[in-house]
Write a structure and sequence with these properties.
about 400 residues, alpha/beta
């Protein structure tokens, strides 16, 4: 093997990192220095060829370095640690104290154990003795401890100026006086409305009732960012009681969800997750079958045995078509409220399947599975899954299905 310039290949270096190693004739040229120049080493190359700094520049850099070094050694404000004058009997410095409480991040009201040190809460965990969550706690509950130490939280009462759009911090005495004056004015010529989120504490609800009894015509308005009002309204129309039902997933052999996500965001996800996975363990015997009918992928849908995708406005027709199969198309001898058969007669399975994009025969198979598992089947619907016009009717249709199936 020969080389183009006549040199023996054996005498050439096996590896080269500079152009001069391959072609000695170009050694010392500017191209040698710039061949492997990069943003990382270009400054180093420039420093090698630059002139050394002058005495004035050196003193400026030295002074700036000393100033930065001194700024990093500033002493923090002194915080004195004072001992208890009268220490609580249950408190031992360095030993945590636990308190049982209730999580307020959502209306589920999971039981929690609050770990405190010297009176400061530092950690939340689920209470194993609580019947709802039985020791588990969702990420929102775990993170709720940060609300106590949020530097942007309100640390006292403020008075909001509606016209100016600003607020002014005041002391509690001033806020109490203004509230008393406003309540006194409303007693004679206005109406008192107490606005709050969902309250799960019986003692707090008793206090609210006592307060409202002092003002004739007073009203308690409950508002939540994620509301379950559709379920409450449907329960009131179906059964005469405005209450949230407790769904027992641990007793169901078949679960069908219509836009509901009991494992993710619905009512009491920690409790539902416990019950769900208790029935999804094959080593314990019969597993619960799960069918999810939903417009978007949910945590429940991703864990389902079968998932059917429909638009939000098709959830209500699908529920009514399943009821039609049980009461009209193929009556199974199921008991239903008076007039229920007439209300579902117009929702024929073939028509609903064609509009919803479901394979023909899907609704009939759903009805057959529900009837085969009657007494141990459960249908759930999401309060926010359907359009506003369908929210309450969808819940009523689900109540009808659950009543038919016992």
């Amino acid at each position: 093997m020969s080389h183009v310039d006549g040199r023996d290949p054996v005498s050439l270096p096996k590896h080269w990192v500079r152009l001069a190693d391959l072609e000695p004739a170009v050694a010392g040229t500017e191209s040698e220095m710039q061949e492997f120049a990069s943003p990382a080493n270009s400054d180093a190359i420039a420093l090698e060829v630059a002139e050394p700094p002058s005495r004035r520049e050196f003193l400026k850099l030295l002074g700036a370095g000393a100033a930065f070094a001194a700024a990093g050694c500033a002493r923090k404000p002194v915080e004195k640690i004072l001992p208890y004058v009268h220490a609580p009997e249950e408190l031992v410095p360095g030993v945590p104290v636990f308190y049982a409480s209730t999580c307020g991040e959502c209306p589920a009201g999971c039981g929690v154990l609050v770990k405190t040190r010297e009176g400061r809460p530092i950690k939340l965990e689920g209470n194993k003795a609580h019947p709802v969550n039985r020791g588990a706690l969702c990420p929102r509950g775990q993170a709720s401890i940060l609300n106590l130490y949020d530097p942007d939280r309100l640390q006292g009462p403020v008075i909001f100026a509606r016209g100016k759009g600003s607020n002014k911090p005041v002391v509690w005495g001033t806020a109490d006086q203004r509230a008393i004056q406003a309540l006194g004015d409303a007693r004679g010529r206005g109406k008192v409305v107490l606005l709050s989120g969902t309250i799960t504490s019986p003692s707090t609800l008793a206090l609210v009732r006592t307060f409202l009894a002092s003002y004739p015509g007073a009203e308690h308005v409950v508002y939540d960012p994620v509301s379950q009002d559709a379920i409450l309204r449907a329960q009131e129309l179906s059964y005469g009681a405005r209450a949230i039902p407790r769904y027992r997933l641990d007793k169901a052999d078949l679960l069908i969800t219509l836009g509901a996500d009991p494992l993710g965001t619905m009512i009491s996800p920690v409790e539902y997750a416990r019950d769900f996975y208790a029935r999804r363990r094959p080593e314990l015997g019969t597993m619960m079958r799960v069918i999810a009918i939903e417009p978007v992928v949910s945590l429940t849908g991703s864990n389902a045995d079968q998932r059917l995708r429909v638009r939000p406005d098709h959830l209500y027709p699908v529920a009514m078509a399943v009821a039609n199969e049980l009461l009209v198309a193929r009556p199974r001898g199921a008991s239903a409220p008076g007039g229920a058969a007439a209300s579902v007669a117009s929702f024929e399975a073939a028509t609903v399947e064609r509009r919803a994009g479901l394979p023909l025969g899907t609704i009939a198979r759903l009805a057959d599975e529900l009837w085969a598992a009657r007494g141990k089947s459960l249908v759930m619907a999401g309060a926010q899954a359907a359009p506003a016009a369908h929210a309450v009717p969808l819940q009523i249709a689900v109540n009808l299905l659950n009543s038919i199936l016992g």
